[in-house]
Amino acid sequence: MSSATIIYTGGLIFDGHQLLRNYSAVFSNNTCTSLIPDAELCQSSTVIELNGDILSAGYADLQVNGGGGILFNDDPSIATLTTIADAHNTMGTTHLLPTLITDAPQITEAAIEATIEATTAAAHSRLGAIVGLHLEGPHISIEKKGAHDANLIRPMQPGDLNLLLQAAQHLPILQVTLAPENVSIKQVQALAEAGIIVALGHTNADYKTCIAYHQAGARCVTHLFNAMSQLGSREPGLVGAAFDTDELSVGLIADGVHVHPASIKAAWKIKALAGRCYLVTDAMTPAGTTLDAFKLNGRNIKRQNGRLTLEDGTLAGADIELTHAIRFLCTEVGVDLEDALRAAIEVPRQVLGMDKAEASIVGQSAGRIIRISAALDKVCHL
Question: What is the distance of C-alpha 310 from the center of its chain?
């Protein structure tokens, strides 16, 4: 895009909170400078027709295990993070948390070091999408391990806690998914006091315990409904705790595989309308590729019909892009497009503690603005 003023018109604009119709986006020097009513268009400017497409700030994804043919666990390095960031950038994600699945202590340490290096260099490289780190395990429940390797799951020891507290001093954002079965309330308090985003997940803890851990500082629930205690008539579990607590934000994999549309609809009415539901991909190695198989901790994972599964059928991450998750919400769950966009753009940024301006299209460079097709089937950068 040149330095001349360019106006995009004839589509929809998500301004970071609401979807604007009959508005145009004005760009100068590769940056969106303002949004104006179509009636105020300047005829002397270069005008580009959107043909019904949507302009928005890029997506924010808080759970990205891999992409571009590699898993973060396989090689937690700058090279891997660059590959993952590039792959998700092509899918419209401009802010992401690389996510390390339960692994050995030395792998966790390497992931922390690589992400610290990446976020330090991000402003001047292709790593600009990396905004922090998400550690999903190893301090989770074996009973609700999902595809995590049971041999690597363990209680949080003083050394583990210290490692996380030290990491939080050098990372702009650190999120950890843990289970009460293997982490104490005092440890959660220490993590929260250090500014770490504590998420409950992969746990069979009861409602009362989950509420206590929330009161100790847990702020999120990782991939709601999956790998956790369910809502029952006499025991509400973690799902019930999430529903009953306004302050708990929940991640959701909206692919029709991990969660039934009716369950999504129920959760949406409770959490999304309060601004507490955000979309995640839980992306694995094949994201952005045509790979049909990969390995996780030495185990074979098959990619078929929108599913990623171990040989025993256990789901191992998800095979979806956020654009397709938005489409699924709109077409299969009946969610309004504006609300679905918030769940992929505004709400996850709020969870990360980012300023509202980060979700706005105004002030963003063209490289961080995406064009979503009117059919919600593809996305590209300006």
Answer: 23
What is the pLDDT tens value at each position of the chain, 382 positions in all? 445 789 999 999 999 999 999 999 999 999 999 999 998 887 767 889 999 999 999 999 999 999 999 999 999 999 999 999 999 999 999 999 999 999 999 999 999 999 999 999 866 678 999 999 999 999 999 999 999 999 999 999 999 999 999 999 999 999 999 999 999 999 999 999 999 999 999 999 999 999 999 999 999 999 999 999 999 999 999 999 999 999 999 999 999 999 999 999 999 999 998 899 999 999 999 999 999 999 998 999 999 999 999 999 999 999 999 999 999 999 999 999 999 999 999 999 999 999 888 999 999 999 899 999 999 999 999 8
Amino acid at 138: P
The answer to whether 282 is a known catalytic residue is yes
Which of 243, 241, 240, 181 minimizes the C-alpha distance to 215? 241
Domains of the chain: 6-56+365-381 (2.30.40.10), 58-358 (3.20.20.140)
Q: Given the residues 160, 282, 319, 339, select the one marked as catalytic.
A: 282
Residue 80 tokens read as 């891997």
Tally Cβ neighbours within 10 Å of residue 265: 16
